[in-house]
Design goal:
145 residues; two-stranded antiparallel ribbon; 3 helices; 10 strands
Length: 145
C-alpha cells in the first residue's frame, strides 16, 4: 500500500519569470502532522512552469496567489481530478489558470525506503505582473535590477 504524505511546495511559480525551476525546487519542504517525510522528495521535472497568465488579467495588471492541493502518484503524475484550490486568489480566472496548468506538471516521484510513493502536495502559484508593485509578503521574490 502506498503511503501518502503531505508536502508543501513553497516553490513560488510565477509566469513573469520571477523565479525559475531550480529556485522552485530549492523551496520544496515536507510537512506532515505525524512527522513522516519521504526519504526522497518529489522533484519538479518541467523546465518552465506550465502556468499561463490570463491575458485579460495580465493587461489589467491583476496579481494574485493561488494555492493548489495536488495528488502526485508513485509515478510522478499529477491526478487532475484530485486537484483542488485550497486558497483562492480572489480571481476565478487566475484560479482556473492555476488548475489548468497543474495538469501539465510532472515530477520524479517521492521515495520511501527506495520505493516510489504517492504524496499530497500544496503548491502556491504566484501571478505577478512585471511592471506592478510587489504584493505584501513578496519579500522572498528576487528583485529585478
Amino acid at each position: 500500500m502506498i503511503r501518502s504524505v503531505a508536502l508543501v511546495l513553497t516553490a513560488m511559480l510565477a509566469l513573469t519569470a520571477c523565479i525559475d525551476r531550480h529556485m522552485a525546487q530549492q523551496a520544496l519542504e515536507a510537512i506532515q502532522a505525524n512527522g513522516r517525510h519521504p526519504e526522497v522528495r518529489p522533484v519538479i521535472l518541467n523546465s518552465t512552469p506550465p502556468f499561463h497568465y490570463p491575458p485579460t488579467l495580465f493587461s489589467r495588471r491583476v496579481q494574485g496567489n493561488v494555492t493548489l492541493r495536488l495528488y502526485v502518484d508513485s509515478t510522478g503524475a499529477v491526478w487532475p481530478e484530485s486537484t483542488t484550490v485550497t486558497q483562492s486568489s480572489g480571481y476565478p480566472a487566475l484560479d482556473s489558470a492555476a488548475v489548468a496548468g497543474s495538469r501539465r506538471l510532472r515530477f520524479s516521484p517521492a521515495k520511501q525506503r527506495g520505493h516510489p510513493v504517492a504524496v499530497m502536495v500544496l503548491l502556491p502559484i504566484l501571478y505577478r505582473h512585471p511592471g506592478s508593485r510587489p504584493l505584501p509578503g513578496d519579500s522572498l521574490l528576487p528583485r529585478k535590477r
